[in-house]
Write a structure and sequence with these properties.
5-stranded mixed sheet, alpha/beta, about 40% helix, 3-stranded antiparallel sheet, 10 strands
Length: about 290
Amino acid sequence: MSSKMPTFDKLMNPMLDALFSMGGSASVDEIYEKVLELEKIPESVSSVPHDPEKSNQTEVGYRLAWARSYLKKYGVLENSTRGVWTVTPKGKRMHHVDTKEVLREIRGGFVPGPKSLESEVPQTIETECESPIIPSWQQELHQLLIKELSPDAFERLAQRLLRESGFIQVEVTGRTGDGGIDGKGIARIHGFMSFHVFFQCKRYKGSVSASEMRDFRGAMVGRADKGLFITTGTFSPAATREATRDGAPPIDMVDGEELARKLKELGLGVKTEMIEQVSVDPAWFQGL
């Protein structure tokens, strides 16, 4: 276990190991969690934010995104439109890569001039030519949520989000000294089953800790079927383990990235504009 932030090239082979351990394919979140587990990256490192003013992305997550980008260009990874990453036949044959060779080959397509690329193996990723940056609308939304919305407004946003998602009897309570419970509602499943849900919502730049998850669970035990924790930040690996711990009431988690996607999907403060594209069909006219 190292307390030092791994460079993005040092994460390439651990990422491949993570994918192989999960059958050759996984989502971004699954890769992230598995790499933290296999590399025993401590929470003090995994919880470091990359740029908390712009997104909820952690520095490790940012560097893993770089590693994915390079391995995809190198031909050992591919991804689907649903965000699932898969090891290619080339990757299965190689299993591990020579990271210096990957850097030389991929950077050779970006860096002009005769300068030796061997000496440019980066220690950090700030020098790279391209980056899997969070979309600008997501950055704008993140800044708005953490800087301009009051805590009360964020609770009302969570209330609206749950109502639009099919919850009924959604109330914002926000009572102090109630273990952080901000509200409650009833989730209806196919019109037949229902679950009483307590929710907590936090405008965070960093990560929700395991202790906060335990406090929330302690406040909801015996009073609700499930818990829902919504944050603009992320959840530490320990918090994720605590939320899904066997034998304890389950807590579902919505981090900043998922919150942004849900607001976009429901059209809550996020508009998707479709640009009209008009084309002429010569064959139609020729058939007259």
